[in-house]
Amino acid sequence: MITKPATLKGTRDFLPHQIAKRSYLFDTIRTVFQSYGFAPIETPAMEKSETLLGKYGEEGDKLLFRILNNGDFMEGVDTGASSASIASQISKRALRYDLTVPFARFVSQHRNELQFPFKRYQIQPVWRADRPQKGRYQEFFQCDADVVGSESLWHEVDFIQIFDEVLTRLGLKVFTIKMNNRKILAGLAEVAGHSDRLKDIAISLDKLDKVGKEQVILEWQSRGIDQEAIEKLSAIFAMKEKKSTEGLRALLAHSEIGLMGMDELDQVMAHAKALGLQSAKLEFDITLARGLDYYTGAIFEVVSDEVAIGSICGGGRYDDLTGIFGMPDMPGVGISFGADRIYDVLDQLQRWPADMMTVPDIIFMNFGEKEAFRCMQVMKEMRKMGYAAELYPSPVKMKKQLKYADDRGIRYVGLIGGEELSSGKITLKDMQEGSQESLELDGFKERMKRG
């Protein structure tokens, strides 16, 4: 039986013209990261399951792609145990869910080889067992930048500038950088009398834009948040509508951590706005919670105002993530660009620059073995000069060879037939201008330099 070829749901193949677009996207992000002093690293696609589990909250743990142990993975397994226990016995490894937790492991493992504050960027794929849908994939790239070893809020200001610069360079004209602070949410939980239930409050609140106010309240109730606390927390919804911190300090008047979050938020937003933004709107969003458990301070989310696709960037401060790897008191803050969603936005808006495809500078027609060998000699010279050159592989009809060059968008065509072999010349055809000239090798090289 012949198997119909198909990619797995949530994954994609990329054709050459798509790779050209992705390379442009990655290169733009990489260039901006480097301009702010970040250095590149890479980590393995796989991590120990214990490294990843418990770092993303209950929702995130469900989305980990687990890898079966080698060999007979059921050997010695207690089949009467719970499904979670069985999963841990048969799967000691998992594909990384994001780049941040592996980075925390990296910092802890290489602490004696790094200089702190350490600023790194990383552009690699991640995997999540999510339900595939528009803008949501099971395999996708993240482009992260992080700083560890510094509590300075200037890093948050930098990251806002980076969001603005990268997306402006990529051609997004209208987008919003949403910002909040987990300390504010902790303060609200404290005011509501549920300091120990921040996770439950935040997980539900983070879904507000997707499910609406009523559903968030129902979920709070199902998580054991009492009615009196819900009434106090309901002030959040009015502030969400206003996109303002008005009245928030009064609400948090008796919460030290909440007021600390307000101070940090005000300072970062004031400096970022004073520096100026090219295309971004910077906006406070009190319901922004970023469901990941490791965030402790500023949190960010970026959305396109031109295409409805969800968040395209995110990030925040995580002041003790490395503590879980035996390296406490190592503050950190970082952001991530969702490259695949940004790609989809640019595709939908048709904002890609023209002529991104990498094609040969010249292609030589094939008239037979002797002529082809002479073409190979000339191409060797061309490549030494920095030009990309190729030979059509077989001596088929000229019309077919020229059509191939035209379809690929190759401007110059080199012709060395019997006459050129005898004269030592090369005929150069300009496919754009429709012109053609016969040149000695040196003249040919000079003509290519002029373009």
Structure in words:
The protein has 451 residues and is of the alpha+beta class. The protein has two domains: 16-349, BirA Bifunctional Protein, domain 2, CATH 3.30.930; 362-450, Rossmann fold. Helices cover 42% and strands 18% of the residues. The protein has an eight-stranded mixed β-sheet with strand order 1-5-6-11-10-9-7-8. A five-stranded mixed β-sheet has the order 13-12-14-15-16. Strand 12, helix 16 and strand 13 form a beta-alpha-beta unit. Helix 1 runs antiparallel to helix 6 and helix 7 (182-191) runs antiparallel to helix 14. The longest helix is centred in the N-terminal third of the chain and has 20 residues, at 16-35. It starts with 15 loop residues before the first helix and ends with a helix. The model has no long low-confidence stretch (mean pLDDT 90).
List keywords for this structure.
451 residues; alpha+beta; BirA Bifunctional Protein, domain 2; Rossmann fold; 2 domains; 8-stranded mixed β-sheet; 5-stranded mixed β-sheet; 19 helices; 16 strands; 42% helix; elongated
